[in-house]
């Protein structure tokens, strides 16, 4: 499939910036949606080669009704990544769950009014994972699986921010599939449910203190915060591979109407991350956190559909860690 202009939301975020770069490297025109003018300006300044094919539109809050109407004009495909991913929130329902659901509703309504051919949405493995089943029962997750968490459980003030986030992703993705079934728009939906995403950043990051949530966990290990962060599951993907998954989900005619779980077939733990860091950055060895962390061999993910339909080859965890940490140490000293 070929597109004349792709609207990318969350373009100034960790994954979004890599998706933007992947599209630009193919000469595909990108209309990037951002809420921060200063981040958008940095993205433009650092991509002088893309002047003629990268433009920004400003969407202050994705959850506002009709907010995408103008941004959608002249666009024929959408990659929707914007969603709150921040565990330091005071009101989890208001700041995580409601904006995720309303954001999806608002952008799908705008897409249906325009000439959109394909809509790729970034959901999460959190929308798939069943924490209780995982503890004891051997299980291979497929695109048929859904996190059983109820709205009431996710929105309960006593829920952890992680559970509220996982709920937000489940309900937002279900909202998208419900919209497709009820409204039957002319475009095809593809949803992606990646697990933990790690790797070097391409979006504006001014210090190691402002890294995105998933890379911040790696930085905790690298900078010696004890103990190792808990790995609630051992699935991960490199951000550059995930950007390629997004673009293939857009371009590949066979992907339409499908739900994919982009997950490397190699499992990770923060113990493994720590060992790779120590081996590859011997000068920092003394401050890198260490600990023992088991990999749960009871659970797996069916990685075949992504590999087969989207033709993805995954990077090794070592490459991801080394590339991330090389950049993070430079960022730390540039402070
Ligand atoms: N990182 C992971 O491990 C992981 C794993 C699975 C799924 N995902 C999903 O991947 C997507 C991107 O995540 P990420 O890791 O790239 O996180 P991120 O760096 O925090 O990016 C999130 C993006 O969404 C934008 N955004 C959030 N709330 C918004 C709102 N209410 N209105 C307008 N824009 C809003 C942010 O804008 P600003 O740039 O202005 O902050 C940012 O560009 C999300 O849908 C997330 O759920 C991430």
Describe the protein's topology:
Elements (H helix, E strand, L loop, with lengths): L5 E4 L4 H12 L4 E5 L2 H9 L8 E5 L18 E4 L11 H21 L5 E5 L8 H6 L2 E3 L9 H5 L5 H23 L4 E5 L3 E3 L14 H10 L13 E3 H13 L7 E2 L9 H11 L18 E3 L2 H7 L6 H17 L2
Parallel strand pairs: 1-2, 1-4, 2-3, 4-5, 5-7, 6-11, 7-10, 8-9
Helix pairs in contact: 1-8, 3-6, 7-11, 9-11
The chain binds NADP nicotinamide-adenine-dinucleotide phosphate.
Residue stretches low in confidence (pLDDT < 50, at least 5 long) are none
CATH domain fold name: Rossmann fold
Number of continuous helical runs: 11
The total domain count is: 1
Number of strand elements: 11
Question: Within the largest sheet, what's the order of strands?
Answer: 3-2-1-4-5-7-10
CATH class: Alpha Beta
Helix content: 40-55%
Q: Specify the CATH architecture.
A: 3-Layer(aba) Sandwich
Please trace the helix and strand order, writing H or E for each element.
EHEHEEHEHEHHEEHEHEHEHH
Q: Which structural class should the secondary elements be placed in?
A: alpha/beta
Alpha-carbon distance between the two ends: 44 Å
Largest sheet: 7 strands, parallel
For this structure, what is the CATH homologous superfamily? NAD(P)-binding Rossmann-like Domain
What is the typical, i.e. mean, pLDDT?
Answer: 95
Using only C-alpha atoms, the radius of gyration works out to: 19 Å
Assign an overall shape. globular
What fraction of the residues are assigned to beta strands by DSSP? Answer: 5-15%
Which ligands appear in the coordinates?
Answer: NADP nicotinamide-adenine-dinucleotide phosphate
Family: Belongs to the NAD(P)-dependent epimerase/dehydratase family. Dihydroflavonol-4-reductase subfamily.
Domain Ketoreductase: 4-151
Protein name: Dihydroflavonol-4-reductase
Keywords: Oxidoreductase
């Amino acid at each position: 499939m070929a597109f004349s202009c792709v609207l990318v939301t969350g373009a100034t975020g960790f994954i979004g910036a890599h998706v933007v770069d992947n599209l630009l490297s193919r000469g595909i025109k990108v209309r990037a949606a951002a809420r921060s003018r200063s981040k958008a300006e940095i993205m433009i300044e650092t991509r002088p080669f893309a002047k003629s094919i990268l433009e920004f539109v400003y969407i202050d809050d994705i959850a506002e009704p009709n907010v995408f109407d103008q941004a959608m004009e002249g666009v024929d495909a959408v990659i929707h990544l914007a969603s709150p991913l921040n565990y330091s929130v005071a009101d989890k329902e208001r700041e995580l769950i409601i904006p995720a659901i309303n954001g999806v509703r608002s952008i799908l309504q705008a897409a249906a009014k325009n000439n959109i051919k394909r809509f790729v949405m970034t959901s999460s493995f959190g929308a798939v994972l069943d924490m209780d089943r995982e503890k004891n029962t051997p299980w291979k997750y497929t695109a048929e699986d859904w996190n059983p968490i109820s709205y009431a459980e996710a929105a309960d003030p006593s829920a952890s921010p992680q559970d509220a986030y996982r709920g937000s992703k489940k309900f937002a993705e279900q909202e998208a599939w419900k919209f497709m079934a009820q409204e039957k728009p002319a475009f095809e939906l593809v949803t992606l449910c990646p697990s933990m995403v790690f790797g070097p950043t391409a979006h504006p990051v001014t210090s190691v203190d402002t890294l995105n949530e998933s890379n911040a966990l790696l930085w905790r290990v690298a900078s010696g915060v004890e103990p190792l962060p808990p790995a609630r599951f051992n699935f991960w993907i490199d951000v550059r591979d995930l950007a390629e998954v997004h673009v293939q989900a857009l371009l590949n005619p066979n992907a339409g109407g499908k739900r994919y779980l982009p997950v490397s077939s190699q499992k990770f733990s923060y113990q493994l991350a720590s060992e790779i860091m120590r081996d590859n950055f011997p000068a920092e060895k003394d401050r890198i956190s260490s600990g023992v962390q088991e990999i749960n061999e009871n659970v797996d993910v069916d990685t075949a559909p992504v590999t087969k339909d989207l033709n993805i080859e995954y990077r090794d965890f070592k490459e991801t860690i080394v590339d991330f940490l090389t950049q993070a140490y430079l960022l730390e000293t540039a402070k």
